Amino acid sequence: MPSQRLQRIHQLKKSQLPRHVAIIMDGNGRWATERGLPRYEGHRAGMKAVREAVEGAIQAGIEFLTLFAFSQENWRRPSREIAFLMSLLERYAQSECQDLVDNGVQVHVIGDLERLESRGRKAIDTITTATREGQRLLLILAISYGARDELVRVARRLAERVNAGELKPGQIDETLFASELYTRSWPDPDLLVRTSGEYRISNFMLWQLAYTELFTTPVLWPDFTREHLFEAVLEYQKRDRRFGRVSS
Ligand code: IPE
Ligand code: IPE
Ligand code: MG
Predict the structure, then answer these.
(1) Choice among 74, 103, 112, 149 that is catalytic
(2) Which residues contact ligand 2 via a Cβ below 6 A?
(3) Of 90, 184, 205, 217, whose CB neighbour count within 10 A is largest?
């Protein structure tokens, strides 16, 4: 395996790396069910894959990595599963914090964090504060995130600014709109990876994905390794990103 690992990473063209990779980490439940285990065991096993994705992104030289960890729709799951996922988040913030700092990772969290309990919010505060000097990889965790909600918040915020006389409706353009998104400071994802063989967006970054290259793999999230990330990037490098033009 290590020799294959060397091969794939060396096939990557450094000049054509995606700056921003986003991943919809899906398939934990099915991974567990296949093994006759309760769903939460799949979530637990998925933590290893998070580490793989972060380390793989650093190794490849990716600047921004967004991980979709918990959607607004996921609040509709059984309360025990939600509680387990939230405790995993707290554990992640504790157990990975020093490694993330040592690896130069800067953590940001996007989503409707008011829905989290105070322990979860505190864990997020701790990890974002501790990692704020990181310079190698910006890791964005989407937690309690829903793209439609994000867009509604932008609309509300712009309406308030118009109401306050700060802004005229005619001044609202794509740049101003994007400046109110959670992602205002970062480039849009170049590549979106979804695991577990699903072909849908599930309310993830509807604005930001306008011209993102999509890659889906049947691999279930707990089985995802840096090799799969490199495979996705290799596939990305074969794509012709035209952005509506005739040729790149
Ligand atoms: C992804 O795995 C983790 C979250 C959405 C929180 P799932 O829990 O969705 O696993 P499947 O899709 O049921 O297999
Ligand atoms: C998407 O996975 C959300 C995350 C990975 C956090 P889901 O498992 O919630 O998506 P659906 O329900 O299959 O669309
Ligand atoms: Mg799922």
Answers:
(1) 74
(2) 24-26, 68-71, 73-74, 198, 200, 202
(3) 205
Residue 121 belongs to a domain: yes
pLDDT in tens, 120-148: 999 999 999 999 999 999 999 999 999 99
Nearest protein CA to atom 8 of ligand 2, as residue: 26
| In a domain? residue 244 | no
Query: What residue numbers bound the domain in which 96 lies?
Result: 17-146+189-236
> Which residues lie closer than 8 Å to 146 by C-beta, 6 or more apart?
71, 72, 73, 111, 112, 203
The CATH number of whichever domain residue 134 belongs to comes to 3.40.1180.10
> Is 74 tagged catalytic?
yes
Q: Is residue 229 a part of any domain in this protein? A: yes
Residue 245 lies in a domain: no
Q: How many domains does the chain have?
A: 1
pLDDT digits (tens, 9 = 90+) for 189-215: 999 999 999 999 999 999 999 999 999
* Alpha carbon distance 38, 219 (integer Å): 19
Predicted pLDDT at 6 = 59
Distance 156 CA to ligand 3 centre (A): 30
- Expressed in percent and rounded to 5, the helix, strand and coil fractions of the chain are 50, 15, 35
**Mean pLDDT, all residues of the chain:** 97
